[in-house]
Amino acid sequence: MTIRKATIEDCELIATIGKTTFLETYLVNTPKAAVEAFIEKAFAMDTLTKELRNPAIHYYIIYHSTKVAGYSKIELNIPNQNIDAAQITKLDRFYVLKEFHGQNVGAQLFNHTIVASKKLQQHGIWLYVWIENKRAINFYTKNNFKVVGYYDFVLSETRSNPNDVLYLEY
């Protein structure tokens, strides 16, 4: 497996992976219109281009052999009201395509993301995770994240999903 930092040229690739994994996760019991409204905004080319130009936002793409398997997105120095610490990273996206589940892709990408955050002088990492996403919750708690709060994640004007706030100090 190889992991590299994403560039502006990766916008379309990031959008494709993001849309695919978001649909796989949320369409299970979220109205399609709400999921599509979020996707349209979050994975728009202008949004991704702006993020990839921001020095405080880092995307990392993982390949399994020669196939793209997923990506992570971190934002540096993003505080959270539930965490009393400075210089912490928000893990904003952590997406692994379903066909690569169970192949150690998530663990490798996670470890790379944590090392990158530490190298950037961060002292912890936090994220929101949908309370229905048991696979993700198990992954994060197995990697020593602790539930520190609750967040109502707004998908669209008519839909929000309950999320836990998880935190890992280092």
From TrEMBL:
CDD domains: NAT_SF (cd04301). InterPro entries: Acyl_CoA_acyltransferase, GNAT_dom, N-term/lysine_N-AcTrnsfr. Residues 1-170 form the N-acetyltransferase domain. Transmembrane segments: none annotated. Keywords: Acyltransferase, Transferase. It holds the Pfam family Acetyltransf_1. This is GNAT family N-acetyltransferase. It comes from Kordia aestuariivivens.
